[in-house]
Amino acid sequence: MSRPRTVIVGAGFAGYRTARELSRVSRGKADITLLNPTDYFLYLPLLPQVAAGILEPRRVTVSLSGTLPHVRLVLGEADGIDLDGRTVHYSDPEGGEGVLPYDRLVLAVGSVNKLLPIPGVAEHAHGFRGLPEALYLRDHVTRQVELAAAADDPKSCAARCTFVVVGAGYTGTEVAAHGQLYTDAQVRGHPLREGMRPRWMLLDIAPRVLPELDEHLSRTADRTLRERGVEVRMGTSVKEATPNGVLLTDGEFVQTRTLVWCVGVRPDPLVESTGQPLERGRIVVDPYLRLPGRPEVFACGDAAAVPDLNNPGNFTPMTAQHAWRHGKTVAHNIAASFGVGERRPYRHKDLGFVVDLGGAKAAANPLGVTLSGPAAGLVTRGYHLAAMPGNRVRVAADWLLDTVLPRQAVQLGLVRSWSVPLDTASPELARVPSGPERRQEAQACSGPGAATAADTGAGDSERPGDEPAKDQPGGEPAKSRPGGEPHKAPGPVKRDDVPEDTPDTPAEGDS
């Protein structure tokens, strides 16, 4: 008798954990296939350190074939699910098409950048959901500082050295914290005009930084950012983005060439294409993470609205901590359907949160114990090393080198602005000229008008996880960790394009 076929779509925190755990507990009683557009698992919580030049890109990528030896890896992106025919249709990296039949299916497709109907954002902002976006941001920031150092015009210099981050959740806070340190280090070698320094601005419509966390962590992060020179402006967001700056909701116009969009995420468009009941964009499942009426189909991670048994009537937030645990529960329930073990409902206990603020600074509350400063920094890095499924020695080595050697501020030029548009359903892939297009154009429903009443509440799972974002710019989801261009980046334009009555003074501004 042939072994039952299990197809897992997506290798994020939930999908990777499902594959690894199922391979272990099924005891060879299942054929496991993992469909993913890349051959690696991305450890999202450390992505800001890639953008800041602390970690090399490969440090945060864990080989799927190297760590999942009993799992068949198929490179490709799912284009559609035939639930009645029990098949998954996909496109491979070279434009070919394929079909994967299944007896058990796991939807762990994750999330994509959430857009709000704000003019100009889709055209001039970049997200922070995948490795290509982190590499692009590193190059872009490096280039802007180098161009500013050589600029003769004070206004041009100031604009290039102004970096606006929208969203004061996990990702936005860490990007701004690490970014300020990175550019400060860069200008020590390339001084700017007298009296100028890089300006990082963090915007959020929420009343405080990290609004999804307790006030101690929020105050710690806010204090660290302000002491470092980051301009934190709460209750403020972007009203319009233009090629040479952003208009804020308080009426101020900020000249800048950099707009980083970290306001949250929404489930992958593939979820909606299944035609199953949704809860704020996520597919509804039972406590065993199965689709109602289809016991052979499971969903987990950001794609699933999982009942929170500890808080009846609610669903578990879109966080890495939950996604990682979802994967383990799904693996055991699939194995139980093969006769190995018993099925179990999903329950959880929060382990706490960690926020890396760069250098020796961090904010953390492991198991409810509030920490800040160097102690929190040690706990945060220790947590990440423990949570990573690979590359621990290499990551630790990079951290050690960063403490004793200056960072290399160079442009690699590997990812161009048009390769990482904000309105993409595949943030893990950089677009290539004349490359095969994914389902995204037809199904992503993205763009300045992408957010609907049902959509704007979707959360961000940004690193292995984030809570649903607010329906205003800047409400990025909470991330609990365990554990084409068509769109150009903001670039210099003629001064004539700026409204005469807009001030030149700077203002402030994460999957």
Index terms:
single chain, 511 residues, alpha/beta, six-stranded mixed beta sheet, four-stranded parallel beta sheet, 26 strands, globular, disordered C terminus
Protein model, in words:
The chain is 28% helix and 20% strand. It is of the alpha/beta class and 511 residues long. It has a six-stranded mixed β-sheet, covered by helices on one side. The protein is globular, with a radius of gyration of 22 Å. The model is unreliable at 436-511 (pLDDT under 50).
How would the blueprint of this fold be written?
Layout: E1 5-9, H1 13-25, E2 31-36, E3 40-42, H2 47-51, E4 61-63, H3 64-67, E5 72-75, E6 77-82, E7 87-91, E8 97-101, E9 104-107, E10 111-113, H4 121-124, H5 131-150, H6 154-160, E11 162-166, H7 170-189, E12 199-204, H8 215-228, E13 231-234, E14 238-242, E15 245-248, E16 253-255, E17 258-261, E18 265-267, H9 269-273, E19 278-279, E20 282-284, E21 290-291, E22 294-299, E23 304-305, H10 320-337, E24 354-356, E25 362-364, E26 371-372, H11 373-387, H12 392-404, H13 440-443
Parallel strand pairs: 1-2, 1-9, 2-5, 9-22, 11-12, 11-17, 12-13, 20-23
Antiparallel strand pairs: 3-4, 6-7, 7-8, 10-18, 14-15, 15-16, 19-20, 21-22, 24-25, 25-26
Helix pairs in contact: 1-10, 5-6, 5-7, 7-8
